[in-house]
Amino acid sequence: MELFKGWFHDHFLKHAVSARPLLLLLDGHSTHYNPDVIRLAKQNDVIIITLVPHTTHEMQPLDTSVFALLKGHWRDVCHEFLQSNPGKVISKYQFSSLLSKAWFKSLNPTNIINGFKYSGIHVYPFNPEVALERIYPTSGPSNAA
């Protein structure tokens, strides 16, 4: 719990832009429930949103965009390397170079913004219905009589 409090005070608040309010998205880990952090957040006009457990794969903006794309680009650059180097394996010497290629294909402003849109977090106030509709689609009109 103290580690999170230290990070929030010494890193997040120190390096955050001066424009307010700020939005901080957190998973539901118990260490994030800290009264001192909540007090500091209120004092500094930081809005904390805790994602519903077991929904971060759908609600966390980078999971829905950048990291999903990174997984595919990583597979592609590895396949390309192995096709170009028959009989070789990817070692620690090639790893960072290959990861860098996949990383820069995945991490760009458009993909980041799209992740926030897909999660329903691209506008204020937060609209979780965007992602919840994807997770739990409403059915059409009932056929029940």
UniProtKB/TrEMBL annotation:
User: DDE-1 domain spans which residues?
Assistant: 2-116
Q: Which domain of life is it from?
A: Eukaryota
Looking up InterPro entries in the UniProt record yields: DDE_SF_endonuclease_dom
- Molecular function per GO: nucleic acid binding
Q: Name one Pfam family in it.
A: DDE_1
| Protein name listed in UniProt | DDE-1 domain-containing protein
**Source species:** Amphimedon queenslandica (Sponge)
